[in-house]
């Protein structure tokens, strides 16, 4: 058989499908790309000029609905009033013309919450923290920072953060504060021992806007048991 006949025979076999084709290996599934991390808006940039330089807020750990924003806000409270909407984890600073600046907040754990009407007696930058005696009794490890020992020095690890507003009622300190926190993950949750926390960049913004003597109204959360109403 000549070379031409051999080639013709092979072509016939291929055409008839008698030659097994190499099996096709299925392509490995492509894992979906992770969603891009949210970009940090300028209001949450690092603040290196602070007494204790602040890092940028990790906004990936903070639900976007709790980011600071200006909103329409119909209320009977006069401009300058702080309204803490505990059930929805918002703080509103009432402005003129039916507007308010809204901040996301963390609130008191169940059993350690506070609500009522009071005033911001005064405010402090980079405050000292002195846990009340009742807290020290529950957590003896806090004894070095007790009132008798002068409290904790200001700084990035201080639980009051970069700023604090001190809430008084009837001329007496309620021992509750509106204060800063580096823990962005805690905003929108009930985690603190009664105080109202904002990320540090937000408390710095609020601190600059609030005046001593401003009224504050903290709305109770009906889902929390043993609520202490002032």
TrEMBL record:
Enzyme class: transferase
Signal peptide: 1-20
Record-linked Gene3D superfamilies: L,D-transpeptidase catalytic domain-like
GO molecular function: acyltransferase activity
Domain L,D-TPase catalytic: 80-219
Active-site positions on this chain: 179 (proton donor/acceptor), 195 (nucleophile)
Record-linked InterPro entries: LD-transpeptidase, LD_TPept_cat_dom, Transpep_catalytic_dom
Family stated for the protein in its record: Belongs to the YkuD family.
Protein name: L,D-transpeptidase
Protein source organism: Neoaquamicrobium sediminum
């Amino acid at each position: 058989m000549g070379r031409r006949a051999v080639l013709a025979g092979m072509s016939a076999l291929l055409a008839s499908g008698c030659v097994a084709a190499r099996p096709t290996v299925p392509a490995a599934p492509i894992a979906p790309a992770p969603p891009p991390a949210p970009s940090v808006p300028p209001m949450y940039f690092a603040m290196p000029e602070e007494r204790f330089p602040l890092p940028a807020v990790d906004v990936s750990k903070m639900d976007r609905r709790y980011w600071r924003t200006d909103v329409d806000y119909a209320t009977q409270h006069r401009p300058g009033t702080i309204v803490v909407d505990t059930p929805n984890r918002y703080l509103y600073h009432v402005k003129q013309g039916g507007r308010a600046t809204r901040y996301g907040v963390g609130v008191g754990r169940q059993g350690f919450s506070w609500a009522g009407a009071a005033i911001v007696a005064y405010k402090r930058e980079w405050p000292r923290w002195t846990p009340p005696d009742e807290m020290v009794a529950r957590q003896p490890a806090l004894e070095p920072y007790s009132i008798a020992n002068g409290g904790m020095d200001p700084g990035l690890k201080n639980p009051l953060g970069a700023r604090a507003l001190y809430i008084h009622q009837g001329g007496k300190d309620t021992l509750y504060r509106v204060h800063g926190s580096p823990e962005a993950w805690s905003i929108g949750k009930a985690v603190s021992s009664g105080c109202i926390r904002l990320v540090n960049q937000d408390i710095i913004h609020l601190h600059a806007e609030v005046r001593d003597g401003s009224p504050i109204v903290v709305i109770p959360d009906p889902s929390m048991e043993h609520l202490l109403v002032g």
